[in-house]
Every structure is written in C-alpha cells, then in structure tokens.
Amino acid sequence: MERKILHVDVNNAFLSWTALERLKNGETVDIREIPAVIGGDEERRSGIVLAKSMKAKICGIYTGETLYMARQKCPNLQVFKGDYQKYKEYSNSLYKLLLEYTDKIERYSIDECFLDMTEYLQGKNILEIANEISKRVYSELGFTVNIGISSNKLLAKMASDFEKPNKVHTLFKEEIEGKMWKLPVKELFMLGRKTVPKLFNMRIKTIGDLARTDRNLLFKKFGKHGNLMWEYANGIDDSEVIYKPEKPKGIGTSITLPNDIINLEKLEEILLELTEQVCFRLRKEKMLTRSVNVQLRTKDFIDFSHQGKIDFLTDSTKEIYKKAKELLREMYKLNTPVRLIGIRVDKLEDENEAQMSLFENVDNKKQGVLDKTIDELKNKYGYTSIVRGTNVKNRENIRKSKIIE
DNA sequence: TCTGGGGTCCTAGGACCC
DNA sequence: TCTGGGGTCCTAGGACCC
C-alpha cells in the first residue's frame, strides 16, 4: 500500500523564532521583515550565518557563510544572537500540535519533522490536512512552515523545499518528471559540495540528467553513494519514519578556541572539561562506551582525530579522560597551533543490556559514586554549578556557545 | 575576510591470520 | 630473489545532513 508522508519544515526557524521572542518582549520591529540574520559570536571565532530573513536572502546571503561576507553583501544587515533553549521550546510546541494528527512522527532536527499519515487519514484528503496543519501552526504558534506531501520521505522532503515560505507542495511519483527533474542537481538531498562538481564534469547538471544516467556507472564511480543518488533522483526511498526515540550511537562535544593554543597542558585542561560534559550526557542516557575519539583542528583548518579502546565498558569521567589524554598526547606530536579540540564516545551500549550479556567486561570499580554525586548536583543546581578544581581557571576561555545548526 | 557544533554513515588502507 | 591471496577487524579521514 502506498504510504502518505508529510515533511514539515519551519521557515527560517531560528530567525522566525527569535522574531517572535522579540515581539513577545515588546520590541516593535519584526526582524522577519528586514535584512537580518541569526549569527554566531565573532569574538569566539564562530561568526557564521545560522539563519537569514527573506530580505537577507535576496541580498545573496546564505547559511553557513561568514558574517563578514554577509555584511559585504548587505551593509545594513542586522545580526542577532540565538537562544537554543527557546528554540527547543518552539520546537516542542510544534511537535505537540503535530501529535494531534499522528503519533508516527520523526523529529528529524529541531525544525523538521516527518509524519507518517498512512493509518490516520480515515478517508480524509492529505492535501486538506496539510493545509489545515499549516494554517493552525501559523495562527496558534505564530510562525510559518512549508509542508511537503508524498509517498516517501525523500520526495516529501524535496517537496517541502519548493517555493517558500508558508507553502504546501505535493511531489507524487507521477510529478517527479515535471517538478523535480528540471532542478539543478545540487538541489537533490545528499548531494553536497564535493559531489556536485564531479557530476558537472560528467555533464550531469539537472536531477533529471542524474536520473537518466546509467546506475552501474554511478556505482563504479561513487560506490554506495552513487547508488543512493541514482535512487533519490528517481524518487526511490523505502526508509521508515522513525517515530520511536532512538538511543544515540555516539555523543561528542567540541569547541573552537577563542585563540589558537599550542600548550599541551592547556589543551588537557580543556579536554577534561569537554570530557565531563560528554560523560554527564552519557550517564544521563544510561549508556556505556569503550571507544573514545579525540579531534584536533589546526589553525589552517586541517582536522586530525585519533580513537582508542578501553578494555571495559564504562561511563566514568576518570577512565574516559585517561584514554582521551593518551590520545591527545599521541596526536600532539604535531606541535602546531590548535584551533579546535573535541571528544566523542562511540559504539554506545545500553547500560542494562550490557550488564546482562557482558558483565565481566563492565567497569565495576566503584569509581561511579563520585560521578553520580556530581551529576545529581548538576541536575539540581544547573550544569555549571559544579566544577573540578582544575577547570575553574579555564571556565572563561571556553564558556560554550548555546547555538547549534 | 574568516570559516560552528552535533550527528551518521562510508571507505581506504594497515595489521594480522591462515 | 621475490615477495600469493582471502578474510576479518580496526582506524583515520571524509562526505553529508541540519
């Protein structure tokens, strides 16, 4: 049976939500109506565009470019900071509204959801429902969305990307040729800046060109990714709407340093603080790891990473930091100024399942008691309330930006 | 000019074994 | 002097997404 999938995408999410928040607080200018962007912090060397208004877009500003470039294109540009906590609240309010239509919702990101409406239509017309959702989001929540309708996730997502803002589009199988094939190939989901020039060299310029290219040729040239892009160009996608919350497969954090650092001890101090954040989240998820990965970025934007294994499953800050420090030292032979440092834990295993099957491999030294006590205090009084002694002097350096995406 | 942070998935190539 | 080949496991790095 053919599925009925919706993709709901908030228009200029961070900017729209910031606009609403400002209006709520008595500001009179709606920043959606002027050339404006949400940007990172230039002093912390994260000065990039995170979201833009329509007027900023008309100036040629795009997401991810530097604020410096954006100002060149649009001298009267207004730049605002984001508030991730607030964004989460707006995202939750959207999710709650959508739950009135189906519980089969995949929260793809903070501002995008897939809905599997197949079993919930009850004879109703999918286009009418999409229009109703669109109107209700605007009247009840105050921001606009684009909604794409199709029989799979890929096509629904492509559809929601058509004309914006505040629009509902369909892209059913029979519409692929008319609506999607004429688009430039870079518009296709999963075709990024590295692949597009290669396709161009093969004289593949539109999604239609790609769809009509020999599948085996693409496989030979691009491997699995070639296969995937051919399927997407032809509107083929069987993936399910994942509506049950999934456990994370990895947890990581990283920070761009306000200044390049060349001193190993300094880097270790920062790494400890990052490790604490990661382990706090790891324990919150009730997951264990034995795989640790440390990443460095040099001042020239070259990335390095090393990963290593711990002999047992653990969530202990001490054990994970011990390994992380080892990895950092191993790598630091480069002796080059470091711009970014990060840590992530991978191949996570559920605490309960791990203890059942692999109990002899779990870290059962009682070290966990201290971590637990610290976690409880952090939960009660806020994350920054408790700091290991050595971290205090770094706190100013690396206070984290709350912005993502 | 300056270039975020948090994820997932894939692949090339090295180590090791038979 | 010539240096197989297949399989598995692992890591570093890269591509892509929002």
Task: Explain what this protein looks like in three dimensions.
With 405 residues, the protein is an alpha+beta fold. The chain has 16 helices and 13 strands. A five-stranded mixed β-sheet has the order 5-6-1-7-8. Strands 9, 10, 11, 12 and 13 form a five-stranded antiparallel β-sheet that branches. β5 and β6 (112-116) form a beta hairpin. α10 (215-222) runs antiparallel to α11 and α12 runs antiparallel to α13 (317-331). It is globular, with a radius of gyration of 24 Å. It starts with a strand and ends in a 7-residue tail after the last helix. The model is unreliable at 396-405 (pLDDT under 50). The structure holds a DNA duplex (18 and 18 nucleotides).
Strand content: 15-25%
Runs in which pLDDT lies below 50 for 5 or more consecutive residues are: 396-405
Multimerization status? single chain
Strand order of the largest sheet: 5-6-1-7-8
The count of β-strands is 13
What does the largest sheet look like?
Answer: 5 strands, mixed
The tally of helices reads 16
Mean pLDDT: 92
| Proportion in helices | 25-40%
Question: Per the principal axes of the C-alpha atoms, what is the gross shape?
Answer: globular
How are the elements arranged and paired?
Elements: E1 5-10, H1 13-24, E2 36-39, E3 49-52, H2 54-58, H3 67-73, E4 78-80, H4 84-98, E5 105-109, E6 112-116, H5 126-141, E7 145-150, H6 153-160, E8 168-170, H7 176-180, H8 195-201, H9 207-211, H10 215-222, H11 224-233, E9 251-261, H12 264-284, E10 287-298, E11 303-314, H13 317-331, E12 338-346, E13 349-350, H14 351-357, H15 368-381, H16 395-398
Parallel strand pairs: 2-4, 7-8
Antiparallel strand pairs: 1-6, 1-7, 2-3, 5-6, 9-12, 10-11, 10-12, 10-13
This protein binds a DNA duplex (18 and 18 nucleotides) through helix 3, strand 9, strand 11 and strand 12.
